[in-house]
TrEMBL record:
GO function terms (MF aspect): long-chain fatty acid transporting porin activity
Protein name as annotated: Hemin receptor
Ranges in coiled-coil conformation: none
Keyword Transmembrane (UniProt): yes
Entry keywords, A to Z: Cell outer membrane, Membrane, Signal, Transmembrane, Transmembrane beta strand
Topology relative to the membrane: Multi-pass membrane protein
InterPro entries for the chain: OMPP1/FadL/TodX
Main location: membrane
Entry similarity comment: Belongs to the OmpP1/FadL family.
Length: 467
């Protein structure tokens, strides 16, 4: 297995890699593509911002606390479809915006409730839950003629100038989660739950760099190591409890274990001769293990009469538990995570108001970036290199706003939700080798840090039946 992706020289906070290059591809993907929870569920769950860890009663609540399954008093089956869109604006020398949308079946779930007579343990429930989220994203950087590289002949005469003519970074794929959950209720006050969770992350990555000469020729190169694809299969456990102090107030606590992944990767990489030329660009495959850190969820739920419910969830993400194996090979990647990745917090609030059979919902999420500030030598839009502090790079703070409506026809019900998400962060390009179809290559030696602002929208429709 070779690591041949975007490399940076990291100097800081007492841990110095003076001459060693660190691949951030593995460590940043571990946090961004594996480390973030799936943003999916039914329309009710999304509409209230997922703040249901203490309220429970719905299959999607097991994402916060599997004990929420025990609150349900009716069996239920449901399916959710939706449209996810993204609008990605990149700022470097100028602004560039990319947009796309996808239709998917985002979620399906079932709750099966078994009442137990003549026992304080009065209810037992089994639930299945499937979530799916698209990972599609495109970052494109516009041409910048100020970033230029001169070419000379053997006599030292200038023969041409190659100018930065754009950069494109694209990810296509999805991540999904299937969970089998069990819950019970004691005297309709104490609810306990357990979840067995099966995870999959599947994506492809493409990165290209273009140069244009002063005589008008354009050359396009692939990042050495791409196209790249990865399939990760993982397993985790979750357990939780909810206690109802009285009709109006309840509290919940849940623990979600680390996710233990086994990852298969496929990529293309250049083979260099002793003379420094590329002899071939071949496909390779390898396998590694990844542990994603666990999380702890504390929740409060409030109910007023039968008309209004309100929830607050706090999640502590234990990102420092993210590790690669074999550790001997991934020593630098694990050290990068140890030094530059924090444990992080997440807040969810949301409520539902009912008028007869009609329901209205609002929700909000704040997800803190897991990254510390990083100090690097960064080239600006004029290709001038200086020591630069990047604040929360790769994955910025996330804000989500949601709203939803629902109507209960008596057994059959329909819910709709809309979610808007915004996030801004700097990412790295450069300090890498790029290869074209004729096996010529260029080294983009400096590191650049464009800013990406990502706005996502999610439209969901859930159809369900209680029985």
């Amino acid at each position: 297995m070779k690591k041949i992706f975007i490399n940076i020289l990291v100097l800081g906070s007492g841990l110095v890699y003076a001459q060693e290059q660190i691949s951030t591809q593995y460590s940043t993907n571990a946090i961004e593509l594996y480390g973030q929870d799936i943003n999916s569920g039914n329309a009710k769950y999304i509409g209230v911002g997922g703040a249901v860890g203490a309220l429970g009663g719905d299959i999607s609540s097991v994402e916060q606390n599997p004990a929420g399954l025990g609150v349900a008093i009716n069996s239920d089956v449901q399916v959710t479809a939706g449209v996810s869109t993204y609008k990605n604006s990149n700022s470097f020398s100028s602004n560039r915006t990319e947009k796309d949308s996808n239709f998917d079946f985002q979620h399906f779930g079932g709750t099966f409730v078994f009442n137990i007579n003549d026992s304080d343990w009065n209810r037992f429930s089994i639930g299945v839950n499937y979530l799916n989220q698209r990972l599609d994203r495109v970052n494109q950087v516009n041409p910048n003629s100020n970033i230029a590289f001169d070419a000379f002949d053997e006599n030292g005469q200038l023969t041409n100038t190659y100018r930065f003519h754009g950069y494109a970074d694209q990810i296509d794929g999805y991540k999904s989660k299937f969970s089998l959950n069990f819950a019970t209720a004691y005297d309709n006050k104490l609810y306990l739950g357990l979840g067995l969770n099966f995870h999959e992350t599947n994506y492809q990555k493409f990165s290209q760099y273009a140069e244009k000469t002063d005589n008008g020729n354009t050359y396009v190169y692939d990042l050495n190591g791409t196209p790249y694809s990865e399939i990760g299969q993982g397993f985790s456990l979750s357990a939780g409890a909810i206690y109802k102090f009285n009709y109006n107030f309840r509290a919940g606590l849940a623990y979600h274990s680390p996710v233990w992944y086994n990852v298969d990767e496929q990529y293309f990489a250049a083979n260099f001769t002793d003379a420094g030329d590329i002899s071939s660009y071949n496909a390779y495959g390898s396998n590694y293990d990844l542990t994603r850190g666990g999380r702890l969820v504390g929740s409060l739920g409030f109910v007023v009469d039968k008309n209004f419910s309100f929830g607050v969830d706090y999640t502590y993400h234990m990102n420092d538990g993210t590790k690669f194996k074999p550790t001997s090979y991934f020593n630098l990647d694990n050290s990068f995570i140890d030094q530059y990745v924090n444990n992080s917090s997440e807040i969810r609030v949301g409520g539902e108001y009912r008028i007869d059979k009609f329901k209205a919902r609002l929700g909000y999420n704040f997800i803190e970036s897991p990254y510390k500030d990083i100090n690097l030598d960064i080239a600006d839009v004029n290709n001038i290199v200086s020591s630069t502090t990047l604040s929360k790079p790769f994955v910025g703070d996330i804000n989500r706003f949601s709203a939803g409506l629902g109507y209960d026809f008596g057994g059959f019900y329909i819910d709709a939700a809309y979610q808007y998400q915004t996030q801004k962060a700097e990412y790295l390009i450069g300090n890498s080798t790029f290869v074209d179809n004729d096996l010529y290559y260029v080294d983009l030696e400096n590191t650049y840090a464009p800013t990406a602002k990502l706005n996502n929208s999610l439209f969901l429709l859930t159809l369900g039946w209680q029985f």
